[in-house]
Amino acid sequence: MWFPQPAPQDHPWRTMSYKGEAGGNAMVPHMSGTTLDAQARYAAGVKTILENYFSGKPQNPADVIVEGGSYATRAYGQRK
């Protein structure tokens, strides 16, 4: 990634070629997105986090990133 997007017309990656088995150009478009199922899971997770917060219930440890001003998780599923 670079700023600004897209790369300038004279950017060297536009003319580089990839020498691997697949061949092709070294520069590929950046694409991003999520499925509708994933979006439904995100929404359900946010709903649970907000319900827990407003009702005073504890959060699921895997959902906590910062706690007491410090990074809360060192590795997935581990609490400090």
Summary tags:
mainly alpha; two-stranded antiparallel sheet; 25% helix
Which residues form runs of ≥5 with pLDDT under 50? none
The largest sheet, given as strand count, sense and whether it forms a barrel, is: 2 strands, antiparallel
The H-and-E topology, N to C, reads as HEE
- Report how far the terminal alpha carbons are from each other: 34 Å
Strand content: 5-15%
Structure description:
The chain is mainly alpha-helical and 80 residues long. It has one domain (12-71). The protein has one helix and two strands. A two-stranded antiparallel sheet has the order 1-2. It starts with 35 loop residues before the first helix and ends in a 9-residue tail after the last strand. The model has no long low-confidence stretch (mean pLDDT 79).
Summarize the structure.
It is built from 1 helix and 2 strands; from the N terminus they run αββ.
Structural topology:
Layout: H1 36-55, E1 66-67, E2 70-71
Antiparallel strand pairs: 1-2
